[in-house]
Amino acid sequence: MALNNAMTADFLRSAYGGESMAHMRYLIWGDHAEKAGYPNIARLFRGIAYAEWAHAKNHFNVLKNQVGDNTVAAGAVFGNTDIIENLQGAINGELHEVDQMYPVYLETARFQNEKDAERSFHFALEAEKIHANMFKGAQEAAKSGKDIPNQKIYVCPICGYTYMGDNVSDCPVCGAKKEIFKEF
Ligand SMILES: [Fe+2]
Ligand SMILES: [Fe+2]
Which superkingdom does the taxonomy of this entry point to (predicted)? Predict the structure, then answer.
């Protein structure tokens, strides 16, 4: 389905930019966490980086008929210092998406009857809520000088849903089978 509305298209491009940068930033912060002696927080960063890739991919694909160049402006968190500060940057970025960006983008897509964009924004919003809480938990651990527990991290490649633990089930957001989840 082709996009019919410029405002939704703009929001998709901005979200694509934001997710692309979050993906990269989390890979960098993952390496930082690994070097700082937090291998499980490093895995969390890498797993969530993959989820942000899934969001960027979804937004990009909804824009498939918007052929050509665009300058993309998107919010981005900067800084690569200690692990607690990096996690605060991650929390801030996720909360911006949860409280500001995606609810507005989602309502716009709904208002403009852009179903594919609505689904793409919905998937991202649901995953970012989980990410914010995971990063908060990781920061709590890091503040007491501890890594998070050594649990498996699963990410749905369709919607970016992220789960940490041993009792993973099929995706509660998009319905994908757990067998296709990527494990970190
Ligand atoms: Fe996220
Ligand atoms: Fe999913």
Answer: Bacteria
